[in-house]
Hints:
About 35% of the residues lie in helices and about 20% in strands. Helix 1 runs parallel beside helix 2 (about 55-70). The chain has helices spanning about 15-30, 55-70, 165-175, 190-205, 265-285, 300-310, 330-340, 350-360, 370-395, 405-410, 430-440, 450-455, and strands at about 1-5, 35-40, 75-85, 95-100, 105-110, 135-140, 140-145, 180-185, 210-215, 215-220, 220-225, 230, 235-240, 245-250, 290-295, 315-320, 345-350, 395-400, 420-425.
Amino acid sequence: MKIALCQINPIIGNLDYNKEKIVKGYERGVKAKADIVIFPELALVGYPPLDLVEKSEFRKAVNKKINELAKITGDVGLLFGAITEDDDRIGTNIHNSAVLCYNGKIQFIQPKSLIPNYDVFDEMRYFEPAKDVYVHQFKGEKLGISVCEDIWNDADYWYKRRYYVDPVEVLKKKGATVYLNISASPYSYGKRKERLEMLSILCRQDELPLAYVCCVGVQTDLVFDGGSMCLDKNGKLVQLGKAYQEDFILFDTENDKEIKVEVEKSFEEEVLTSLIYGVREYFEKMNFKKAVVGLSGGLDSAMVTYIAVKALGKENVHVILMPSKYSSKGSVTDSEKLIKNLGISPDNVSIQPVVDETINQLTPKFKKKLGKLTGENIQARIRGVYLMAFSNNDNYLVLTTGNKSELAVGYCTLYGDMSGSLAVIADVYKSDLYKIANFLNRKKEIIPKEIITKAPSAELSPNQK
C-alpha cells in the first residue's frame, strides 16, 4: 500500500484555511499515486480547540466541512482528524475522531479511545472515548486506525501504563494489516527519539508497518515539531518527516528500505531550535512582526534577545536598557556588547527619575515605612510600564525573560518582569540556559562571556545576590 502523509500546520478554528490545506494535500497525494492520504489529529479544526468544542454552531460548521471534504474524494482514501458527534445521550457525545472518506462519502469514523488528562492535555473535559475500535477493509488491507494517545499504551514499551486498555492491541487481534496513527504530539526534548523507540517495538512485535503523521506549528504555548515517521514490519525507520516545517511523505509499505538518520540532535541544539521556531510561529499566527525586550545585562534577557533575533530578524527586535541607581556598570557594558554582537538598535531610558517620584508620592500615604520588597517591586513594575508603552505605541509584542527555575519558586514580580505577551524561556531551567549559551559560543562569542560567568542579580537593591 502507498500512503501519503501530509504534515501540515493548521490554525485553530480556521476551518476554511484548514480545509484548503487538506484539499491541496489530498490532490498532491492523488498525483503521487497514493492509495490513501492521511493528515494529523484534528487537522480540520486545529489542536487543541479547547472551548470551541462546546459551541454547537462550531460543531455544525465542522460537520459541514467534513461532508465537503468527503465529496472531493475518489477511490483514493482521505483520512483526517476532526470533531464528530454521535446520538448517545450519556456523556458529551463529542469525539476526537479519525474520519476516512473515499468515493465521495464518509466511509468510516474511528473516535479516539484514550483521552489524555495530564500535563498539557485536558481532553476529558471535551471528548468522550470510543466505545470500541474496529479495522476497516480498504484496497486489500485491513486498516488499524488510531488517534495519537491510542498508540502510547503498549505494555511491551511502558513499564507502567496510564490506561488498562490498549486500542492498538485490540486492532491487531481484529486482524489489522497496517497501522495508521494520526497525531498532534507537542514537542519536548527527547520526544522524537521516544516516539521512534516506542513505534519500532510495536511494529516489530506485531510484524506490521505503521504510518505516523504529526502536525507542526505553534498553538499559544505548545510547539508541535512534526517529525512524522513510517516504519516497516520489522520496526525499521523507512521515512522521516522534516522537523519544524510542513512536509509531504510517500510511504510504500512493501518496498521502502531502512534509512539511517539522526532523529534528534544535541539537547542544546534541539531546545534552541524549538524556542526559535516557537517565537517565529507565535508571531506569525498573532499577525505581529516586531518584538521588544528589556535588556538587563543578565543571561535571561540576553538569551531571549538572541532567540528573538534568530526568529524575527534583527531589524524586528528592539531592546530597551532601563538602568537604575542599582544597575552595575558591567550590566550596561555587557548589554552594549551583546547589542553589538547581534547588530540591533537599543534605547536607553533610565527608570530612576520615575522610581524616585513614585516613592516620593506614595511614601507619605503608607501606614508603614517603605519596605525593601516594595521598593524593589516598584522598579520592576516601572520597567514593565516602559516596555508596555513601547508595545502599545509602536506595535511591538513584549517578550518576558523569566526562566523556569525562577518562575517555579515565584522569584519574579507580578505586573513587572512578568508583563508581556510571550514567556520565551519559561520552560527552560536556568542551568540549561548556561548550557545553551556556551553551546552558542562554541565557535565565536555571541553571548558575552561576562554575562555567562557573573553571578545572577536582579540589581534592585545594593549588592543584591
